[in-house]
Amino acid sequence: MPDIFIHKDFQLNGQYFKSPSNLISYVNKNLPEHATFVQALFDDESFITAQTSGSTGTPKQIKIKKLHMRNSALKTIAFFDLKPQTKALLNLSSGFIAGKMMWVRALLGGWHLDVTHPDNQSIASTLSNNRYDFGAMVPLQVFQNIDKIHHIKKLIIGGGAVSQNLLDKIYDLPNRIYATYGMTETITHIAVMPLNQVAENDFYQDDIKKGYRILDNIHIDTDDRNCLMITAPDIADDQIITNDLVELLDDQHFRWLGRYDNIINSGGIKLIPEQIEQKLKSIIKVPFFIAGLPDAKLGQKAVLILETEQIPKDLPEQIKKHLSKYEVPKNIYMLPEFERTPTGKIQRQNTLRKLKK
Questions:
Q1: Rounded CA Rg of the chain
Q2: Which run of H or of E encompasses 97?
Q3: Residues 169, 146: Cα–Cα separation, whole Å
Q4: Is the distance from CB of 302 to CB of 273 less than 8 angstroms?
Q5: Contacts of 245-250 spanning 24+ positions with Cβ under 8 A
Q6: Are 331 and 318 in contact (CB under 8 A)?
């Protein structure tokens, strides 16, 4: 059996397909933006080419085995108990791994897949008229459709941080909403964490601290930097060493702390920007991030960059109430617009370069 095949129950926009060639013809005609990927899925190569997001560096092309894509898809199907005829929505570009894997899960799982454009108007229109069992979105798509996402029974969110403002909006919704941890190299997520109350209630045991839970046949450890190491022989040939600082809670759960390459060494005090950001989420309602800039005395100083055109007058005092004296940013800057990846992640270094101009 080939690594990628069409399950007998698979439907695309309400239609069945007897063969890959029939599916490819339909996609070429009706969904041309997905045609290159769908055709590549069924060609004679044992791999497809995927592009990394570029959120922490220059985007690059990597080769991913179709066998590994199949194994990853089956993990997700099993973890979320997604049976054949699951009604699913694809509202992501197949130019990146998240969109690619929704295709693979649907094909192998025998889902009934509806495909719509990633823009807000298309998603809103689709969700207004349909109900779904499963879907995946980036945070901006969730925010823009906050009054309709309860139409998706199980929703995973990836591709960027979920703000406190968004968390507050989704916490009491009746569907199950999860954050995912992963990257192109791990073929999307290898771990999942609930984001709202109904998902938490059937996810955590009393003796487990809140954090990400890994999928089956994933093994995790940390290196001497406390960065996550992932061993998953059925989705990656080699161990993956990340730059993600984590706290291991047990062999199945971890808490994400931040990026090693974002650490600020300020006068010998090591600051993790993402941990400072977590403390500020409740008082800052616009997009923001903490970064390090060169400083003659400290080596590096922590600064706060806001995506806004006006800094609230009381913000400096509010910040002091929420942070230790070492964490308080030395300066606050504002920019009208941050640099972002196509999936909505803030590109910190590119945004900092705009600040320096």
A1: 21
A2: helix 97-109
A3: 7
A4: yes
A5: 245/272, 246/222, 247/211, 248/220, 248/221, 248/222, 249/208, 249/209, 249/211, 250/208
A6: no
Give the chain's domains with CATH numbers.
11-218 (3.40.50.12780), 263-356 (3.30.300.30)
Task: State how far the Cα of 276 lies from the Cα of 91, in Å rounded to an integer.
Answer: 32
Chain Cα centroid distance, residue 270: 26
Segment 73-89 shows an average pLDDT of 97
Whether the pLDDT of residue 272 is over 60: the answer is yes
Q: What is the pLDDT of residue 36?
A: 97
Mean pLDDT across the chain, nearest whole number?
93
Using the Cα atoms of residue 220, residue 222, residue 227 and residue 230 in order, give the sign of their dihedral.
Answer: negative
Residue 104 class from Cβ within 10 Å (0-12 exposed, 13-18 middle, 19+ buried)? buried
Q: How far apart are CA 77 and CA 134, in angstroms?
A: 10
**First-last CA distance in the chain:** 56
Tokens of 353: 């370069």
Q: Output DSSP code: residue 309.
A: S
Looking at residue 157, its amino acid is: I
- pLDDT band of residue 203 (cuts 50, 70, 90) is confident
d(CA 300, CA 271): 10
Lowest average pLDDT, out of 39-43, 139-143, 163-167, 175-179, goes to 163-167
Q: Are 335 and 307 in contact (CB under 8 A)?
A: yes
Q: How confident is the model at residue 53 (pLDDT cuts 50, 70, 90)?
A: low
234 contacts 70 by C-beta, under 8 angstroms: no
- DSSP 3-state of 47: strand
Q: Please state which of the ranges 107-111, 175-179, 248-252 shows the lowest mean pLDDT.
A: 248-252
Closest CA to 50 of 111, 116, 104, 108: 104
CA nearest 357: which of 340, 341, 333?
333
Q: What strand order describes the sheet that includes 288-295?
A: 288-295, 299-307, 331-335
The better pLDDT of the pair 172, 159 is held by 172
| Element holding 302 (H helix, E strand) | strand 299-307
Tokens 């906050």 correspond to 146
Check if the beta carbon of residue 171 is closer than 8 Å to that of residue 163: no
